[in-house]
């Protein structure tokens, strides 16, 4: 995509409260619904969409269509079908949400989580929702339906892929701009750089005498530095492509990249609960998953 198009896109989301993206938002809502459901089922404190039941005059857990209607903002004409009146939503529930979705579709953050009383970055929203998911899934004796956990993970992957298509190529461009020789060895797994594979590939090239040992080490150092300075590199690329780009526009684009990484972290952490569940011992042996900041830094998905 041309930078010009990105800027147009960006200006249309600039003034929304949360950095929404209309191609990923339906999947994000379905993911949020599962976290809501995990809270109801596990007996953990309810923090997600706590006003939903009352909005429909019931004390039962909301169905997905009710949940979505409760959260989405005015100006988003949502007409759910009977299939959307479900407690096990899948990607097909995105169809009704996406029909006539406005350009800058949004949902209410304060209804999603009362703690969000003012504007919050989407990365923070994702972090809090992930904490809520981990807390519910860690409740002693609670096991969500495998299909539910699987759907929640699939939604974060789909949301990430939808956002990825628009912005992630910028990271590749930044790498190409600053370390063109090293860029050739990059291995990606979907939206994420696979640094282990990348470094192996460089080692192979050295072993096969395609490049000198010192060259290989230089490439690795460049890639390591890149992984630690992705924002600065992307900013440099944005500036080189458009001298007039504003700080706000650059920040907005970087925020999108951060959201993509947060969704990757979410997928990773939810996946740890799947592994724990298939462990027959019943006791969860996994390490605390709340501080895997490598994933954020490197955008690594597995
Ligand atoms: C989402 O918004 C973009 C512009 O930001 C627009 O071009 C596109 O048509 C919208 N998608 C839908 C499904 O309305
Ligand atoms: C690492 O990257 C930063 C940001 O692009 C750059 O300023 C710095 O010179 C790089 N350091 C090395 C050792 O290449």
UniProtKB/TrEMBL annotation:
Positions of the UniProt region annotated as Disordered: 277-302
Keywords: Signal
Signal peptide: 1-20
Protein name: Uncharacterized protein
Organism: Aspergillus heteromorphus CBS 117.55
